[in-house]
User: What shape does this take?
Amino acid sequence: MQIKHWLLAIRPKTLPAAVCPVLVGAACAASDNAFSFVMFVAALSGALLLQISVNLANDYFDFKNKIDTHERKGPVRVTQSGLIKPETVRNATIFTLLLSLILGLFLIMKGGVVILVIVIASLICAVCYSGGPYPIASNGLGEVFVFLFFGPVAVCGTYYLMAGMGSWECMAVSIPVGLLITAIIVVNNLRDIQTDAKAGKRTLPVILGYARTKTEYFILVLLSFLLPCLMFASGWYRAAILLPLLVFHLSFPLLRAISEEKGEALNLCLAGTAKMALAYCALFSCGILFS
Assistant: This one.
């Protein structure tokens, strides 16, 4: 079994979604003189493990539920294509979830009950996103859960691990992070709208249709760039919070692609949205530190 097959299963291009909220949460903690390198590494590792678990579980359950077929327009899925046996992907999912749990126990020792709730909820949702009797992603709730867990939960959870308390400012800066990460899953689901609908998978784009989903993507991206401007205008932050605007130009070809492309052509838009989100959050983190 080749390493490249496991890389297909892990989906490296989606991993910025796990990195972004931890970066911003750590920046908030550093701005309050509460940064901890150990907690940063632990939180980042946990987020990456959970993202990998979600990807593996999605690969396995979408094959098991006959959602992934030869007609799908996205990158190769290792279970559906036969590159890796279903039981092997299932066992890899369980293994990464166990690693996440072990790391979660360490985080719980530091963060107490609040982190306990976050760890349990994250592990459950990692499986239930694609599996279980009522899969989140197949019932129009994927974007909602992605926004919550990759926005407020991950950003504020990282901050709480380091600072030992909550912060309204941290909650505010988690919103644009959640919006951009949600935009990634919107592209993914827009690309698969026809095959998902045929398989009975009712993602939000399947429910909304092409036109409204494209509008959703525009709103998510443009609002994420508008929010730093509002934070600066409100007097909460200095001009450094506007640093994400340096990558606003990256959104132009993505917005055009969403408007004009369908199916497999959206794969580049998916990768581009993830790269834009990572660049945005790196600059946003710097803006928080210098503001």
